[in-house]
User: What shape does this take?
Amino acid sequence: MKTPIDPIAGIRSGDRHTIQSIWTDLFPAVRKWVKDCGGTEDDAKDVFQDALMVIYDKSGSPGFQLTSKFSTYFLGICRNLVGNLFQKRYRRDVTLSEDLKSIAEEPIDYVAKDRKKLMDNARKQLGQDCQQVLDLFFQGISMVEIAAKLGFASEGYAKRRKHQCKERLVDLVRSQPGFEELLYN
Amino acid sequence: MDHKDHIDDYIAGNLAPDQLQVFEEAMAQDPELRKEVNLQRQIFDHFRDAGRQRLLSVIDEVTKENSIGKKESTQPPPNRFRWLKWFGLSVFLIAATWFIWRPSAVQEEYVPSKQEGVFPPPPVPRETPEEEPPAETNELRANVEEKPPMEEGLLAAVDPRDFAVNPSMESLMTGMRGDEVDIELTSPTFSESGFKSKKGRTTISFAGIATGLINDGLILQIFSNRDINRPLQTYPIEITETLEDKATFGSTFQLKLKPGLYYFSILTASDEAEVYIGKFKIDQP
Assistant: This one.
């Protein structure tokens, strides 16, 4: 296996090398399952992507701990996704038309768009190092790892830096025009 | 304690149960704290979403890079149909070759030593039918033509993929359990020998006992072994008798299906919930 030692951290940080390694090592198995079920190459890619997103979300939950080999865990998720995909597809057109109906009926959330823009602006005004600290922190990476990745002297310093950066970010968010309407309503 | 120091842990779900209780009580009493938690939660969500977007774009790039040169994309696995295409082409070529060379083949059969002392006539080209071949030639041709034509034998060959099991449906069959309705099917029972068809029609009864709520009957859907997304045929199944929560059902259909393996699904008519998945086989005539 060429997969790095900690692929979960690689997924959390969107590390390209990690994703490429997972693709090389594990995608052929996913493709085989999907094709055995009558699916296409694109179906296999969707399953691969969804599995990574599942891991991204799960690994951000408190108490998440990988208890098996990464490949076993990843392929287990893929197997479930393949089963769900074909079960859903088997349930025919109803699913598709209902999905489309819900999309068609879904209103465009302009408030959410403006809120996102406000957050992006505040984030951009942070210094580069603060952005790095907060990116890692919000990805759920531990303070020890953040200290190691960013070359900080200690976990304690990483904590203090994170605290300062977050205070700064909150202040920047508060200073954006329209903040009260968008975030306190 | 300063509750603001615990906002991160609260949002990330890292507070111990006793700390959580204290924090939630504080939030209930302090509207400013509630506002702060709300703001920081939105910031947290935004960064988490940004992380998801970043990961998605990396996956997309990796997927695209690794797909360069592979043009399979949205098409089903190509070798499935390539085989059929070549098979069809081969059959056509064999049939065409036989058809074109048939007259000369007959004449060559005419030559052998049975014709003692008779010099065989020159081959008659197909384009000159006015020259009648000798009577023996006609007899021989009749004999040849009475034999089953070569291409018929080939064309009648059945595609083995029509009998292949579909892993997806097989897994659904084993895991199928109705939530409210339980089906005990008495017919059809799957047999490797399969059903026999007469004049292209196969008579099959779908019958059994349903336990649970059957308000307005059952529906039968039949699928080919290759396309489990679209039913080939849909029929209502008649409820013959109801006693408390049990109902017997049964309907017989004359199905116009070619030989092959088929899957069927029984659904409740009221909400189209699948309650049974099975299969049957139709043999070659």
About this structure: The two ends of chain A are 50 Å apart (CA to CA). Residues 10 and 134 of chain A are 16 Å apart (CA to CA). Residues 16-36 of chain A form the longest helix (21 residues).
